[in-house]
Amino acid sequence: MKYTFPLAAVIALVLIAWIGSKIPGMQYLFGVVIPWLAVATFIIGFCYRVVHWAKSPVPFKIPTTCGQGYSLPWIKHDKLESPATTSQVVARMFLEIFLFRSLWRNTKAEVHEGPKLTYESSKWLWLFGILFHYSFLVIILRHIRLFVDPVPGFINVLEFGDGILQIGAPSIYLTDVTILLGLILLFGRRLINRQVKYISLANDYFPLFLIFGIVVTGILMRFFLRTDIDIVAIKRLAIGLATLQPTIPTNIGSIFYIHLFLVSVLLAYFPFSKLMHLGGVFLSPTRNLANDSRMRRHINPWNPDIKPHSYAGYEDEFREFMVDAGIPVEKELPPKADEE
Amino acid sequence: MYDRGIIIPGLIIFVLLVTFPIWYNHGVAGDVPKPELPKDSKKCVDSVNVMRSKHMQLLNEWRDEVLRTGDRAYFELEGKKYQKSLQNACITCHTSKKKFCDTCHEYASVTPYCWDCHLAPVESE
Description:
Chain A is built from 13 helices and 2 strands; from the N terminus they run αααββαααααααααα. With about 350 residues, chain A is mainly alpha-helical. Chain A folds into 2 domains: about 5-290, Transmembrane di-heme cytochromes, Chain C (Fumarate Reductase Cytochrome B subunit); about 315-340, no CATH class. Chain A has a two-stranded antiparallel sheet with strand order 1-2. Chain A is elongated and about 110 Å long. The termini of chain A are far apart. Chain B has about 120 residues and is mainly alpha-helical. Chain B has one domain. Chain B is built from 6 helices and 2 strands, in the order αααββααα. The chains are: A mainly alpha (about 350), B mainly alpha (about 120). The interface of A and B includes residues 145, 226, 245 and 251 of A.
């Protein structure tokens, strides 16, 4: 029951924000202080983690290659699976970051009659992942409309596309549906797939529940619990946060503070968690290095500085001992002065 | 630190993207829009708070009731009778789209599609 503790934690966070925002005077804490601290933790923590990673030396070229490396001219080179130049690495990274290409390699092993063992590409994880990540990206970009004035045109375009179904008022967003679907599928995968269930930890479930909480409070706030959700007041608060001129408008509904508090927790939790794959995907040496170890020498940065030591120099250093031990030397010891 | 030439520009781009609302606003919080309220009528179909947060749901319900069941039931307000209607009810008091609807909608970047079908009131300059 590794998911009970994270679930309880998210419920506790909701209760803290719910009860806390009802206490007079606490709106400033939940509306201004905590979001500011969370954003500061997010930015500083993120940069610290990336710099920390950048300080770790990479002793070997360790790209994961899954295709024919660059070789003789008549052997077909697989440029994406075994990139040999920087531009090929960039192409590979681009497909990885924007299309999650390596998830197509997620395989499922099955034993058939025979007995015959087969490995088949299982693209469900890729599908759920791409559904979730792109929905989340669009949702984050859409929220910019609450933080800036005037709102840039591309945000309006995005918003129009997202609400194109024009169902209800305020109209339903496509991404609200797809992110919920993605979250449920990603969570269901951890429950149903036995191997994945076995390796799932509390810190796998916590972000899922937390983001689920954020999405659900957001949907409730927009469509169902609209009492005291005055979007002008909320935008004034959000712009106040961005321009460092905070004002707390009176009586915004509790659901807003719950939503904001969960987002703050997510931001503050981000640099300390597996969510850092946002930065990590760029810094993974198995992806961002070129497979060119036969063309270019990769020097281990922690190699000690060893000077070349020739045989002549070696004999100079140890000649006396060599002669004493009866080892033949190329150059004899100089004759001793007292023997003449 | 290794690969300083890539890591530092990358981090700068990241911080600039994340802090977009901070530098885009130039530190100006701006004014909250003040929609012009009708002068000769003090009461709307519901309280200010409810109208602010739920008017779109109310209008949507009216639209569905009127278009799908033909139910244009009248309601009385300050001795006058009104229809469930945008053009025959709301706009009789809120005579200007620019000075009333658009002030908040532009601020919050909301583009309701009311006016795809309805005629916007003629703005008197």
